[in-house]
Amino acid sequence: MDIETIRNYCLKKKGVTEELPFGPDTLVFKVMGKMFATAGLDEVPLRINLKCDPERVPDLRAEYPEHILPGYHMNKKHWNTVLPEGNLPNSLIFGLIDHSYELVVQGLPKKVQAQLNDLEQS
């Protein structure tokens, strides 16, 4: 899976923006101002950081040790670095993006969650 597919998928989610707060080589996706995914635009192979429920982290890393690693420059208990190129199923990648998005939404204050719910779907 390439960066454009990931970018398009993330941007279709409600309340999502993209930014380059860490410089021109790190794309950050936020929902209501909170980060749920990052991608190193200069990384070969492509790497994306995604938030993950700490209870799922060990199983994912054990099942996909070459594609799901501890979060690079992130809290390794709550973030994974995913290498989406190769034989990692697209459905898994999309599912991990969805999971990261949902975790961040669940952590938003109730008022912000209500604002998100009131937004039009992009």
Give structural attributes:
122 residues, Aspartate Aminotransferase, domain 1, DNA-binding, single chain, alpha+beta, 6-stranded antiparallel sheet
In short:
It holds the Pfam family YjbR. By secondary structure, this protein is an alpha+beta fold.
Description:
- This protein is of the alpha+beta class and 122 residues long.
- It has a single domain, classed as Aspartate Aminotransferase, domain 1 (Alpha-Beta Complex), CATH 3.90.1150.30.
- 35% of the residues lie in helices and 23% in strands.
- It has four helices and six strands, in the order αββββαββαα.
- The chain has a six-stranded antiparallel beta sheet with strand order 1-2-3-4-6-5, covered by helices on one side.
- A hairpin with a 2-residue loop joins β2 and β3.
- Pfam families: YjbR.
- This is MmcQ/YjbR family DNA-binding protein.
Structural class: alpha+beta
Rounded to the nearest angstrom, the radius of gyration is 14 Å
- Give a short account of the largest sheet: 6 strands, antiparallel
Q: What's the assembly state of these chains?
A: single chain
What CATH architecture do you see?
Answer: Alpha-Beta Complex
Helicity, as a percent range: 25-40%
Total number of β-strand segments? 6
Terminal-residue CA separation: 22 Å
CATH class: Alpha Beta
The averaged pLDDT comes out at 92
Layout of secondary structure:
Layout: H1 3-11, E1 16-19, E2 26-31, E3 34-40, E4 48-51, H2 57-63, E5 68-70, E6 79-82, H3 90-107, H4 110-118
Antiparallel strand pairs: 1-2, 2-3, 3-4, 4-6, 5-6
Protein name: MmcQ/YjbR family DNA-binding protein
InterPro entries: YjbR (IPR007351), YjbR-like_sf (IPR038056), YjbR/MT2646/Rv2570-like (IPR058532)
GO molecular function: DNA binding
